[in-house]
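S.,

Sequence below, as promised.
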Amino acid sequence: MDLTALNRVRDEIVEIDGEHTEKESDLSEGKLPEGIAEADRGEKRKCGGAEAGLSGEELDGKKDESSATKKLKIASISEGLSYEVVEEEGQIEPALKKLREPGEGLPLFAVDLEGEKLSRAGELVILSAATEKHTFLFNIKKLGPGVFDKGLRDLLQDPDRQKLMFDCRQDSDCLWHQYSVKLTNVLDLQVMEVVHRGDHMKQNAVVAMLAYSSSGYLPRVNGFKKCLQKYNVQDQGILQAKERGSQVMKREGVWLEQPLQKALLEYSAADVMGFYKLYEKLKSAVRLNNHAVVEASKNYLEFFRSRAVRTNDTFERNGFVPWRIFPTTPGTGPITTCQKCRQGFPSSDFNQRGQHICPVCVKVTKEVNKGWY
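The prediction came back faster than expected:
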């Protein structure tokens, strides 16, 4: 071996045993050693505004000699989005440890799922989890279902840790039926937005829900992107990442490709980071109608996962606030099954003679007949 080759080999070695903490050449230039997969298909990741250098992780200020700390961590800061992709077993516990840290502000952490046709029958690819300080993207497709047995299930099921989510219905269905993970203690932002909307109109949303059948008030739910715009969340990094990801997602099957495109990783990180931004805009709804938000969030968790059979039709997945999702006064008469959505409600909820169709499904039927679906 000549001298040049010898120096090249020497420069590729990083020792994390206290003698060397920085690489002499390649790492200082922002290059990655062979064998470390790049989720952005070879693009250089950025960290702190400079091209990313790599270092061993030190937890609690003390060097851990386990293999986990000897794994080089790749952090990404791009367009103001800082996140870490967890796709190797040695990265799981350090990530979970940071997620378990008590927050300085909000006593909760944000959770979101991404994948292909996500539900009990779809395929989960990324589970995003974030605190105010850290954002982790767990690559479930690479880690496999065993990642839930290594502490992730316990964290998601912890009744003492509140999870901030946006429309958790499909996520809850997926986690329970595919991975035996029963989400608990969720604060759902889509529910909060409905309550906040009612309060903003000086019309208590929950009272309006009670008068569904008599007043015809059938509110629609808003998507996350629309909520960001509606409540003037001015974070260009988040908004641009959402837009780039949406463009990539127009192609079917893109979530099943490995390595994942950088736009999809940024999209996933933008969601959970954006949850905190939107929460700040909507938290007055929790103060004014905490019981309604909490109970409706519980009902959202069960909305799909408690069903023996999913139909995935228009009546199951429409754009309206689900009937009786908020705590309401009890109806009268025996529980009767809606002929469209197959959900049971007090017989007094059905107004059309000879037909057992709940008010939401009545509205959806009219829209279907108009060709809107």
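The chain has three domains: 1-78, 88-329, 335-369.

Coffee later?
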